Amino acid sequence: MPTFIAPDGTRLAYRTAGSGPPLICVPGGPADSRYLGDLGGLAAHRRLIVADLRGTGRSAQPADPSTYRCDRLVDDIEALRAHLDLPRVDLLGHSAGTNVAVQYAARHPERLRTLLLVGPSTRAVGLEITGRTRRDLARLRSGEPWFASAYAALEALTEGAGGDPEAITPFFYGRWDDAARQHHSAGRPRNEDAVAHFAAEGAFTPNATREALAVCPAPVLLLTGEYDVNSPPRSVAELAALFPDARLEVQPAAGHYPWLDDAGRFVAVTEAFLARHG
User: Fold this and answer.
1) End-to-end distance of the chain based on CA atoms, in angstroms?
2) With 90 as the cut, is the pLDDT of residue 245 above it?
3) What is the pLDDT of residues 135-156, one digit of tens each?
4) Looking at 158-256, which runs of residues are DSSP E strands?
5) Which among 71, 92, 177, 254 could bridge 258 via Cys, Cβ 3.0 to 4.6 Å?
6) What is the pLDDT of residue 226?
7) What pTM was estimated for this model as a whole?
8) In whole angstroms, what is the distance from residue 50 CA to residue 115 CA?
9) How confident is the model at residue 177 (pLDDT cuts 50, 70, 90)?
10) In 3D, which of 117, 115, 119, 95 has the Cα closest to residue 107?
């Protein structure tokens, strides 16, 4: 597995898959990047360069836990770009990793050719996703056999009444089957320090980030699933409006991992976007 040295001396790993023009991928979690797989077959068109964020996967744990903070991770992605000797990059982020990708776009717009945000978080720009928005979306799944218990847990969580986060997992998948269960188990964050420090005080500067994104020249694709309670289409549309050149794609019948729910559609949309702006 190839590695490089981050600005603070931490040795970080990344994996590559496929061939073609490079696409740097930032996972969410923070979790082992293996849950991204080959992004539904996108590796048949692009050379995926998938980062293991510090302290996850095969990357080393830093001496200073504060460097797990989201804004500090931007420096690691820039170091990876320099290590690869890429003047400009196509950058994909998923879930929490989109906060890193968005802040990269704000700080290094001259290094960015395109930006792809899959199941994006809105924390970096300070957009609140209300409990009502999540519950309204979740009710689209009312015909599912697991709905009653999962929805009760979602109500409790969004209303601040406790609730089991694991119980709402079916809402994150277009199909809650054995493959989804295995994927969820493999993709769970393992480094508690990385999770705890990711959104620590100072990790996000929403006003400054919004101002920078308003003049970001790179084309942006925001792709979310029709059923994604983590990244509801209504909220992702608000995020898209912050960019001057953005396209919103809502994948039908998909959850938070759209490349699993319909790989063919996911690859067709993302590759068409990259080819158009390559």
Assistant:
1) 27
2) yes
3) 999 999 999 999 999 999 999 9
4) 220-225, 246-251
5) 254
6) 98
7) 0.97
8) 15
9) very high
10) 115
